C-alpha cells in the first residue's frame, strides 16, 4: 500500500482565544476524493489552509507527498507546487489574461520558458474546456469560467493533491454544473482531491470518503452511503437532516 | 486713459514683459529641473518605504510611520526654511535649490508612501493567497500580482498629490531659488510693474496644465476592466 499523499496528525489551530482546530488526524490516500462537510465555523476551511500552510498550525504535523510542511528547512514555495488550491472567490489575477494567470507560476516557480509555459498553460485550459478563452481577461468571463480557469491555474503545475475550498459556493446555480464536471474529470484522471463543499449530490456520486466536522474535530467519517444514509453520531445525523431538508 | 487701458498698461505691459521674458524663461527651466527631481526622488522614495513597510517588521514599520507622519504634518515651506537655515548648524550648507528639492521630495515621499500603502493593502488578501498557494515567493507575489494591482489604484491620488507638491517649487523663492516666481519677483521690483508676475502666472499655466492633462491620461490608460 502506497504512502498517503496527505498525512496530518494532531493538528491544532488557535485564532487568538478561539480554538478552531482541536486535534485533527487526517490521512488521504492517492487518488482518493475526500469530501469535508460540516456547519460553518467547524474549521473545514482552516483545515485545508493548514495543509498548504496558508494558515500556520498552532501544533501538530502536516506531511504532504512526503514533505514535512512545517519543518523550517522545507522550501515551502517548492512544496506548494505539489498542492493545488481552488478558492471560493476564484482569486484570479484581474490584470492578466486567463493564459497569463495559468502560466505565471509555471514561469516563476517551475522555471519554464515562456514557450513551454504557454504550451502547458493552453493544455491546462483545454482540460477545463476553456482553450478558446485563453486571451480573455477574468473580468470578461462568467463565474463558472473564472473558477475553471482557477482550476487550470492549479493543475498546470501538476500537483499531487488538489484542495477545493467551497469551489462552487459563490456561483450562480446554473454555473455550478460546469465546475463540478471539471472536478469529476479530474477525479477520473486519478487526481487526489480534498473538497470542502455543500454539494451533497456531488459527494454522493463522486466521493470515496466523507468527513463530517463540527467544533474543530472530525466527528465521523466513512463512505458517502454510510454518512448520508446511516450516520452513527447524533450530531452527524442532525446536520445531514438539516441540509437535506432543503 | 480708460480704466481698461490703465489695467493693461499696469498688468500686461508689453515692453516690460518683453524685457523680462528671457528671465522668466530661465526660471521655467529651473522650475522644470526642480519639479522633475522632486517627482522622481519623492515617488521612488515613497515606493521604497511602502515596500519596506510591507515586510511587516514592526520596528521598521514604526520608524516609517513616524517619518511619514512628520513630513505630512509640516508645511512644506517650514521644511524648506528648516533645511536651509537649520542644517548649517550641523555643518551642512545646502543651496536654496537643494533645500527646496530635498524638502519637497521628503513631503512627496511621505504622501506617496501613504498612497502606495493604501493601494497595497486594498488588494484583496485572496490575491496573496492564490499567488502564494501556487508556490510564488513573497517577493514574486508582491511584484507580479499585488503591486501591479496596487499601482493602478494609486495612480489617481498620486498624480493629484504630485501636481500639488510640485507647484510648491514656487516656495523656493523664499530661499533665493531662481525659479519662475523668484524671477518674476525680481523683475517686478526692478521694473516697478507687476506685468512680470502675469508672465510668471502664464508660465505656470503653460507648464502645469499639460501635466494635469497628462495625469488624467495616465489615470484612464491604466484602468483595466474589472
Write the layout of secondary structure elements.
The complex is a heterodimer of chains A (about 250) and B (about 230).
Chain A: E1 6-15, E2 18-28, E3 33-37, H1 44-51, E4 59-64, E5 67-68, H2 76-80, E6 83-86, H3 98-108, H4 114-127, H5 143-155, E7 161-165, H6 173-188, E8 192-196, H7 200-206, E9 209-214, E10 217-222, H8 224-229, H9 234-244
Parallel strand pairs in A: 3-8, 3-9, 6-7, 7-8
Antiparallel strand pairs in A: 1-2, 1-4, 4-5, 9-10
Chain B: H1 3-11, H2 14-54, H3 58-73, H4 76-86, H5 96-122, H6 125-133, H7 138-166, H8 180-191, H9 195-221
Question: Can you describe what's shown?
Answer:
The complex is a heterodimer of chains A (246) and B (226). Helices cover 37% and strands 24% of the residues of chain A. With 246 residues, chain A is of the alpha/beta class. Chain B is 80% helix and 0% strand. Chains A and B meet through helix 2, strand 6, helix 3 and helix 5 of A and helix 6 and helix 7 of B.
Give me the secondary-structure category of chain A. alpha/beta
Label the overall shape of chain A.
globular
> Residue ranges of chain A: pLDDT <50 for 5 or more in a row?
none
Please give the count of helices of chain A.
9
The average pLDDT score of chain B comes to: 90
What's the shape of chain B? elongated
The main sheet of chain B comes to:
none
Q: Calculate the terminal CA-CA distance of chain A, rounded to whole Å.
A: 40 Å
User: Strand share of the residues of chain B?
Assistant: under 5%
**Main β-sheet description of chain A:** 6 strands, mixed
**What's the helix count of chain B?**
9
- Quaternary state, please? heterodimer
What do the pLDDT scores of chain A average to?
93
Report the order of strands and helices of chain B.
Answer: HHHHHHHHH
How many strands in all of chain A? 10
Major sheet: arrangement of strands of chain A = 6-7-8-3-9-10
Low-confidence stretches of chain B: none
Amino acid at each position: 500500500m502506497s504512502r498517503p499523499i496527505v498525512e496530518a496528525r494532531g493538528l491544532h489551530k488557535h485564532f487568538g482565544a478561539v480554538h478552531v482546530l482541536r486535534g485533527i488526524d487526517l490521512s488521504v490516500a492517492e487518488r482518493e476524493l475526500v469530501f469535508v462537510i460540516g456547519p460553518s465555523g467547524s474549521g473545514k476551511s482552516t483545515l485545508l489552509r493548514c495543509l498548504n500552510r496558508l494558515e500556520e498550525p498552532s501544533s501538530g504535523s502536516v506531511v504532504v507527498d512526503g514533505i514535512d510542511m512545517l519543518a523550517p528547512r522545507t522550501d515551502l514555495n517548492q512544496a506548494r507546487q505539489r498542492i493545488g488550491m481552488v478558492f471560493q472567490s476564484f482569486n484570479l489575477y484581474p490584470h492578466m489574461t486567463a493564459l497569463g494567470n495559468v502560466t505565471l507560476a509555471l514561469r516563476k516557480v517551475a522555471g519554464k520558458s515562456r514557450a513551454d509555459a504557454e504550451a502547458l498553460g493552453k493544455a491546462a485550459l483545454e482540460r477545463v474546456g476553456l482553450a478558446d478563452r485563453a486571451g480573455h481577461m477574468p473580468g470578461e468571463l462568467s463565474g463558472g469560467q473564472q473558477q475553471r480557469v482557477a482550476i487550470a491555474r492549479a493543475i498546470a503545475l501538476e500537483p499531487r493533491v488538489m484542495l477545493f475550498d467551497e469551489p462552487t459556493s459563490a456561483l450562480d446555480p446554473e454555473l455550478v454544473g460546469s465546475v463540478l464536471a471539471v472536478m469529476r474529470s479530474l477525479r477520473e484522471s486519478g487526481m487526489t482531491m480534498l473538497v470542502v463543499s455543500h454539494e451533497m449530490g456531488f459527494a454522493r456520486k463522486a466521493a470515496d470518503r466523507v468527513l463530517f466536522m463540527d467544533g474543530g474535530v472530525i466527528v465521523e467519517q466513512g463512505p458517502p452511503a454510510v454518512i448520508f444514509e446511516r450516520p452513527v453520531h447524533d450530531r452527524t445525523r442532525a446536520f445531514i437532516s438539516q441540509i437535506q431538508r432543503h | 486713459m480708460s480704466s481698461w487701458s490703465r489695467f493693461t498698461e499696469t498688468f500686461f505691459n508689453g515692453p516690460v514683459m518683453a524685457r523680462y521674458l528671457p528671465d522668466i524663461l530661465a526660471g521655467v527651466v529651473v522650475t522644470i529641473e526642480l519639479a522633475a527631481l522632486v517627482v522622481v526622488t519623492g515617488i521612488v522614495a515613497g515606493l521604497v518605504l511602502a515596500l519596506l513597510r510591507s515586510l511587516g517588521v514592526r520596528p521598521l514599520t514604526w520608524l516609517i510611520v513616524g517619518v511619514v507622519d512628520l513630513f505630512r504634518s509640516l508645511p512644506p515651506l517650514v521644511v524648506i526654511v528648516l533645511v536651509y537655515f537649520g542644517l548649517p548648524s550641523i555643518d551642512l550648507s545646502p543651496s536654496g535649490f537643494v533645500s527646496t528639492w530635498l524638502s519637497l521630495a521628503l513631503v512627496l515621499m511621505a504622501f506617496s508612501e501613504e498612497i502606495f500603502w493604501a493601494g497595497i493593502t486594498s488588494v484583496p488578501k485572496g490575491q496573496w493567497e492564490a499567488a502564494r498557494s501556487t508556490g510564488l515567493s513573497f517577493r514574486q507575489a508582491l511584484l507580479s500580482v499585488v503591486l501591479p494591482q496596487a499601482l493602478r489604484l494609486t495612480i489617481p491620488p498620486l498624480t493629484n498629490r504630485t501636481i500639488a507638491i510640485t507647484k510648491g517649487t514656487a516656495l523656493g523663492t523664499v530661499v533665493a531659488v531662481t525659479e519662475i516666481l523668484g524671477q518674476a519677483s525680481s523683475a517686478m521690483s526692478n521694473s516697478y510693474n507687476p506685468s512680470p508676475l502675469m508672465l510668471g502666472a502664464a508660465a505656470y499655466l503653460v507648464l502645469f496644465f499639460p501635466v494635469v492633462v497628462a495625469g488624467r491620461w495616465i489615470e484612464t490608460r491604466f484602468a483595466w476592466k474589472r
